[in-house]
C-alpha cells in the first residue's frame, strides 16, 4: 500500500527531500531486520535528525492514522523493526551524538543512533565502564537496545540495558515530548514510566535521548576457556560456580557445531576435539580476580574439563570474546537461513534444557547449533535451514513450539533478550496469562489509541 502524495509532501517538508526515501529499490534494505524469513515493504523511510522532526512526523502519522515503525540499525532478531505494509519507517541512525559524559555523576547522555560500542569507548576514555554488550554491539544502536532491553555477554554479573538507564526523552504517538527520570540515584516520585518504556519494542513511544548510568572500570580481569567432552559437564560446572558464590562477568558456552563454525570463521585457535566449550571471565580487584579464577579452574577440572586455557593478555581475551560474539554469523555460513532464538530457563534446569533442545532437533530431523549465556540460563538454539523449503520451515516452527513450551514448564521464559516482536507473539499469551495480556493491551491503547506505533508487534 503506497502512501498518498499529500502525506509524502508533508513528510518532505519536515525532514527535507534528502531524508525521505520513496523509490522501491531504496526501500528494499528497510524491508527486513536481522530476523530470518520476515520482510514487508514500507511506504517510505524517514531519517530524523532532531526530536522536533520526530514529533512532527508522529503528529502527522497520528492525524492520518498512518502506521509508524521506528528503526535503528535493524539488528533485531524478533521481527521488531520489520515494517508494516505501507508504513512510515522512522529511522534514527542520524541521531548519533554523544551529548554529555558527566564523570562527576557517572552518567552519559546520548541520542538513540549512537552505537553500543561508541558508548563503551566513550566511557572507557573517561576512565569509566558501560557493561551492556549485546553480540551486535558494533552496529546496534542504544535506542534499539533500550526498546528491546538488550542483554549481552556480561549480563550475568552486570545485568541488562534496563539496569543502566536512568532517564530518557520519549515522543508519544501524538507527538508530545516527555522526559522521564534524572541523574538522581534515588527517585520514587510517581509511576516509573521510564521502566515501562524500556523493553516496549517501539510500541509506546519513540526514544530520542537516553541518560545512562556508568560505573567504575574494574581494576583487573582474567579470561579462561575450558573444554568438555559432554555438555552436561559444562552445565554442571556453571551450576557449581554459582553455588560457590562466584558471579563471573562472563560465563558463555558453545556446542560442538558452533565451536567448529566459529573457529573456521574467526580462526582464533579454539580446540576442536570437544563437545562443549565454556568462556569464563572474572573481573574486579586483582586479588579477588586471581582467587575466583583459580576456583573456577578447580571446579571445571572437577567436572572433567579436558583443558582450561587462560588468556595470555588483553588482546587474546578480546579475541576469545570476539569469537563468542561471532557465533551467529559463523553459523549463518552453513545454511541459507539461520533462525536463532533465546529461550531462557532457571540455571538449575540448564542441563535438562540443553538435552531437550538436542532431542527436539533430532526428532524433527533438523540441524542445530546451540550457544548462549549459560551463566544466566539464556540459551540460543539456532536452526540451520532454508526458508524456501516449506516443509523444513514447518518442522522448525514445531520444534520451537516444543522448546518454548518446555521453557515455560520449567519456570523459564520465551525470550531473555531478543523480545517478542512478530516472531514470538503467538507464544506470548501462554507465557503471560490472561490478566497480564489484558493490562498490556490496555496500556498500549491508552498511550496509542489509534494504534499507529509498531502495529502487529507483541500482539494484534
How would you explain this protein's 3D organization?
By secondary structure, the chain is of the alpha+beta class. The protein has four domains: 5-91, Uridine Diphospho-n-acetylenolpyruvylglucosamine Reductase, domain 2 (2-Layer Sandwich), CATH 3.30.43.10; 98-216, Uridine Diphospho-n-acetylenolpyruvylglucosamine Reductase, domain 3 (2-Layer Sandwich); 220-324, 2-Layer Sandwich (Alpha-Beta Plaits); 335-451, Alpha-Beta Plaits, CATH 3.30.70. It is 36% helix and 20% strand. The protein contains 15 helices and 18 strands. It has helices spanning 5-15, 24-27, 51-64, 116-125, 142-148, 155-158, 193-197, 231-243, 256-266, 286-302, 314-325, 327-331, 350-363, 390-409, 428-447, and strands spanning 20-21, 44-47, 68-71, 88-91, 98-102, 107-110, 128-129, 165-171, 177-181, 206-213, 215-216, 220-228, 250-255, 276-284, 307-310, 337-340, 367-373, 378-385. The strands form four sheets. The protein has a seven-stranded antiparallel beta sheet with strand order 15-12-14-13-17-18-16, with helices on both faces. Strands 5-6-10-8-9 form a five-stranded antiparallel beta sheet. A hairpin with a 5-residue loop joins strand 8 and strand 9 (177-181). Helix 1 (5-15) packs antiparallel against helix 3, helix 8 packs across helix 10 and helix 13 (350-363) runs antiparallel to helix 14. The protein starts with a helix and ends in a 13-residue tail after the last helix.
Amino acid at each position: 500500500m503506497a502512501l498518498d502524495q499529500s502525506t509524502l509532501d508533508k513528510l518532505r517538508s519536515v525532514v527535507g527531500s534528502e531524508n525521505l526515501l520513496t523509490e522501491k529499490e531504496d526501500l528494499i534494505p528497510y524491508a527486513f531486520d536481522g530476523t530470518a524469513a520476515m520482510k514487508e515493504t514500507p511506504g517510505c523511510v524517514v531519517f530524523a535528525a532532531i526530536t522536533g522532526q520526530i514529533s512532527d512526523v508522529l503528529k502527522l502519522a497520528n492525524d492520518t492514522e498512518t502506521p509508524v515503525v521506528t528503526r535503528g540499525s535493524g539488528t533485531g532478531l524478533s521481527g521488531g523493526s520489520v515494517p508494516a505494509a505501507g508504513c512510515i519507517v522512522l529511522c534514527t541512525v542520524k541521531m548519533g551524538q554523544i551529548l554529555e559524559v558527566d564523570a562527576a555523576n557517572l552518567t552519559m547522555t546520548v541520542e538513540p543512533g549512537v552505537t553500543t560500542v561508541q558508548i563503551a569507548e566513550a566511557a572507557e576514555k573517561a576512565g569509566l565502564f558501560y557493561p551492556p554488550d549485546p553480540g551486535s554491539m558494533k552496529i546496534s544502536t542504544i535506542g534499539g537496545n533500550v526498546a528491546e532491553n538488550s542483554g549481552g555477554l556480561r549480563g550475568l554479573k552486570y545485568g541488562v540495558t534496563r539496569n543502566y538507564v536512568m532517564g530518557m526523552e520519549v515522543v508519544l504517538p501524538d507527538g508530545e515530548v516527555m522526559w522521564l527520570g534524572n541523574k538522581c540515584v534515588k527517585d520514587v516520585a510517581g509511576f516509573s514510566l521510564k521502566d515501562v518504556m524500556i523493553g516496549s519494542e517501539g510500541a509506546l513511544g519513540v526514544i530520542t535521548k537516553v541518560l545512562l548510568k556508568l560505573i567504575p572500570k574494574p581494576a583487573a580481569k582474567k579470561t579462561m576457556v575450558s573444554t568438555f567432552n559432554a555438555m552436561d559437564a559444562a552445565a554442571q560446572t556453571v551450576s557449581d560456580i554459582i553455588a560457590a558464590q562466584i558471579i563471573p562477568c562472563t560465563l558463555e558456552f558453545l556446542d560442538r557445531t558452533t565451536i567448529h563454525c566459529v573457529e573456521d570463521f574467526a580462526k582464533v585457535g579454539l580446540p576442536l576435539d570437544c563437545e562443549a566449550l565454556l568462556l569464563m571471565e572474572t573481573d574486579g580487584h586483582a586479588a579477588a580476580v586471581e582467587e575466583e579464577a583459580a576456583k573456577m579452574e578447580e571446579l571445571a577440572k572437577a567436572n572433567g574439563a579436558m583443558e582450561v586455557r587462560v588468556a595470555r593478555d588483553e588482546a587474546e581475551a578480546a579475541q576469545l570474546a570476539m569469537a563468542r560474539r561471532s557465533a551467529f554469523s559463523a553459523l549463518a555460513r552453513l545454511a541459507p537461513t539461520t533462525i536463532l532464538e533465546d529461550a531462557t530457563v532457571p540455571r538449575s534446569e540448564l542441563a535438562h534444557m540443553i538435552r531437550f533442545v538436542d532431542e527436539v532437533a533430532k526428532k524433527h530431523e533438523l540441524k542445530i547449533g546451540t550457544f548462549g549465556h549459560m551463566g544466566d540460563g539464556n540459551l540460543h538454539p539456532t536452526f540451520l535451514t532454508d526458508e524456501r523449503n516449506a516443509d523444513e520451515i514447518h518442522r522448525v516452527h514445531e520444534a520451537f513450539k516444543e522448546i518454548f513450551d518446555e521453557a515455560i514448564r520449567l519456570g523459564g521464559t520465551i525470550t531473555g533478550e531478543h523480545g517478542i516482536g512478530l516472531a514470538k507473539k503467538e507464544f506470548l499469551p501462554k507465557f503471560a496469562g490472561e490478566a497480564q495480556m489484558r493490562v498490556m493491551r490496555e496500556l498500549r491503547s491508552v498511550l496509542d489509541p489509534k494504534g499507529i506505533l509498531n502495529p502487529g508487534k507483541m500482539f494484534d
